[in-house]
Write a structure and sequence with these properties.
Elements: H1 3-29, H2 33-49, H3 53-56, H4 59-63, H5 65-69, H6 74-93, H7 120-135, H8 141-154, H9 158-162, E1 175-179, E2 185-189, H10 192-202, E3 214-215, E4 218-219, H11 222-235, H12 245-258, H13 263-270, H14 275-281, H15 286-296, H16 298-308
Antiparallel strand pairs: 1-2, 3-4
Helix pairs in contact: 1-2, 2-6, 7-8, 8-10, 8-12, 13-14, 15-16
């Protein structure tokens, strides 16, 4: 069975379990209709994010939800986490599972951990897989190239990327102007590679679509983007749990800093109101910082002069 077939089978199994859970809530807890709809929405959303669905998810997969939930408000995360904990308690009590993995469900309020670091080799493997698909004229290869080039090449948030208007990227304009969190506008440089990838993909976009990445009656969803990125990682030989759209945004910032970019410049590129947020989202090796001090601090030159001086 194909990967898509296994995923569809898992989703179908989850739908049956979710229906049984909602029936229990209605019958035993007297849950209101809006409550049931909220549970159904949250559980279906989590099912779509988990490679093997809710029924087969273990602790590692549930912990991975933290990446997808990162942009959400703490109250939203609390609601989703509560729905999952109650759902897994139901599965365990009713004998659908021998264990209850809900302790691994991400919780709001805790200090955010640093995002996972994706090294240059892993990024190269992703792009090698994209080139392989393009050479084979695989379906979706051009869209995939445009998505990953913009995620890693420009550091866009997932929500910003999927909702780009069709003509947001112009062949003769090397930047975007985006309105991000809090209505703040920022200028986002677009690399030549990314613009070329978008131009190629744009030829495939229906002329009447208002979106650069259309899907159904709207644009590509953040959930589907999350799935696309993880599917690419698996094909490139990278453990899917190591990667997400946010990890690629983090890699964009990290690799810029490693290349010598100024922290304030990266702050502007990421659209952070506070540089402290940039420091959390960007991880720089301690060894690099030590080397930077040894090479760039004014006293470093003085030490070299002193070392060359002959004793009196």
């Amino acid at each position: 069975m194909s990967t898509r077939g296994r995923r569809d089978e898992a989703r179908a199994g989850d739908r049956g379990l979710i229906a049984a859970f909602l029936e229990m809530l209605a019958a035993e807890a007297g849950a209101a209709r809006n409550t049931l709809l909220a549970y159904e929405r949250d559980l279906a959303g989590a099912s779509a994010l988990l490679p093997g669905g809710l029924e087969r998810a273990g602790a590692a997969e549930l912990r991975g939800l933290a990446e997808a939930w990162r942009p959400l408000a703490p109250a939203t995360v609390a609601r989703k986490a509560a729905a999952l904990r109650r759902f897994y308690g139901f599965l365990h009590d009713e004998g659908f599972r021998d264990d209850d993995p809900s302790a691994a469900v991400p919780r709001p309020g805790a200090r955010r951990p640093l995002p996972r670091v994706l090294d240059h080799g892993a990024v190269a493997a992703l792009f090698a897989e994209i080139e392989r698909r393009k050479a084979a004229a695989a379906p979706g290869a051009l869209r995939l190239a445009a998505l990953i080039e913009l995620l890693y090449g420009s550091g866009l948030r997932a929500s910003e990327l999927v909702s780009l208007p069709r003509r947001a990227v112009s062949p003769d304009r090397p930047f975007l102007i985006l309105k991000g969190k809090g209505g703040r506008e920022r200028l986002v440089p677009i690399s030549d590679r990314a613009r070329a990838a978008v131009v190629e993909w744009a030829r495939e976009v229906p002329r009447d679509s208002p979106w650069l990445f259309p899907s159904g009656r709207g644009h590509l969803s953040r959930v589907r983007l999350f799935q696309i990125v993880r599917e690419l990682a698996a094909a490139a030989g990278i453990p899917p749990e190591r990667i997400s759209p946010h990890v690629l945004r983090h890699a964009f910032a990290t690799h810029l800093l490693e290349g010598g970019a100024d922290l304030r410049a990266v702050q502007m590129l990421l659209g952070h109101a506070d540089v402290a947020t940039t420091q959390i989202y960007t991880h720089v090796d301690t060894s690099r910082l030590v080397d930077l001090v040894n090479r760039r601090h004014p006293l470093a030159d003085q030490r070299r002069v002193d070392a060359r001086a002959k004793p009196a």
